[in-house]
Amino acid sequence: MKKPKYHVFICSSSRINGQQKGFCHSKNSVNLLEEFMEEIEERGLGGDVLVTHTGCFGICEKGPVVVVYPHNVWYGGVTSDDIEVIMDEHIEGGSPVKSLEIN
């Protein structure tokens, strides 16, 4: 496996014991994870973009939270409608989506 160009982390509110509960989970973050993966596949970016679900980032009021590395860009309140914008502007365009960034 080659190193991906981007690594997208999506809070799924996973707990150490494997349970998924919490704010991001209640806001459909698991669906966001699946939708990101589908979008990456449709664009043929499977080798360039890796998606990983995470436990809590500790800023639940900003959730669902999506973090994109290597740029260390944190997005908050991400919805299904934002996925295409993040993919177009950040992942393929190289410019973070300022309107979604957590400052």
Characteristic terms for this protein:
alpha+beta, 4 strands, 103 residues
Task: Describe the structure concisely for a colleague.
With 103 residues, this protein is an alpha+beta fold. It is built from three helices and four strands. It has a domain of 34 residues.
Q: Secondary structure elements and their pairing?
A:
Elements lengths: L5 E9 L8 H4 L2 H14 L6 E7 L10 E4 L3 E3 L4 H13 L11
Helix pairs in contact: 2-3
The beta-strand count equals 4
Instruction: Summarize model confidence as the mean pLDDT.
Output: 90
Give the structural class.
Answer: alpha+beta
End-to-end span in angstroms? Answer: 33 Å
Give the low-pLDDT segments: none
- N-to-C series of helices and strands: EHHEEEH
Shape: globular
If you compute it from the alpha carbons, what radius of gyration comes out, rounded to the nearest whole angstrom?
13 Å
DSSP helical segment count: 3
Strand line-up of the largest beta sheet: 2-1-3-4
Helicity range: 25-40%
How much strand? 15-25%
**Biggest sheet details:** 4 strands, mixed
